[in-house]
Design brief:
By secondary structure, this protein is of the alpha/beta class. It has six helices and 15 strands. It folds into two domains: 115 residues, Rossmann fold, CATH 3.40.50; 136 residues, Alpha/Beta hydrolase fold, catalytic domain (Rossmann fold, 3-Layer(aba) Sandwich), CATH 3.40.50.1820.
Amino acid sequence: MRWTVLVLGLAAGCAAGEGKDTAGDRPELGSPGAPAALAEKSGSCPDLSAPGISTFTSGGEEHRVGVYFPKAKPEGMPVMFVWHGLTAPGFGDVIEQMVNPFDLDELARKQDMIVVVPESPVRNLVISDVLLWGILADADREADLRLFDDLRSCIVEGLAADPWRVTSWGFSGGGLWNSLLIMDRSDVFAAAATASGGTDQDATPQLVYRSPARKELPVMLVDGGDNDIWPGGGISILDFKEATAAFRDELVADGHYVLACEHGSGHTVPVPYWSAIRKFLRQHVFGEPSPFQDGDVPVPDVCEEAG
């Protein structure tokens, strides 16, 4: 399959041979230097007997999620969360709309990894109902953080996944949500990336910058330049270039390793940048120095080190 530009969507992946497994002797989850302990689940878990879409409960509400992995289910697989953008309900299956174009199920099988694609709740934006992550209100934020915590616990326990190699990626509305996760759940990620995400926009009250608890989280930030705005068509409610720049500067000031990548193509994700994101995420293990920072892996030529 060939893509020239990935538009208004979210992609995650890894090239063959990327990444490393340095398990060795690791401290217990929740101890100093280790990822946070698994949260106590607030409901049921998805069906993990076979890859695919299933329903489960979190915080008393029913949710849908696609979980993709090799049928053999080897232990110690890395986990990649992917977050869809804002969309209207009733226009097809939002999970399948992400999995099918980007072959996420095939990616999981070929790379011996777990790809998790949750569906957001339906929320009302006054003018219409939309599928949207919790970036606008305290209650929504807390519910979706609980959803993430539940899924992490279910996946690590149910599939014997590697909690030291959990990463997360999002674009547009999913990029904004992943920016929030970077701030609020930095203690679980080996690395994270956003495309058209960021902080400190008046339209997203939950995205005022908060220093992540973990002080050395590797992050890749991608934006589309001056025309990376939403909704577009001459109307700018969210300026993703501005939001990404704000997030970059704040993360760098807090001591995080950041790769900054601006492609100038507007609210899209060109293929070289998607390739850079998947390579970046695949290379990291929680608590270990970024191989990009220490020179073990070259910085993608579409990005540069910030700071």
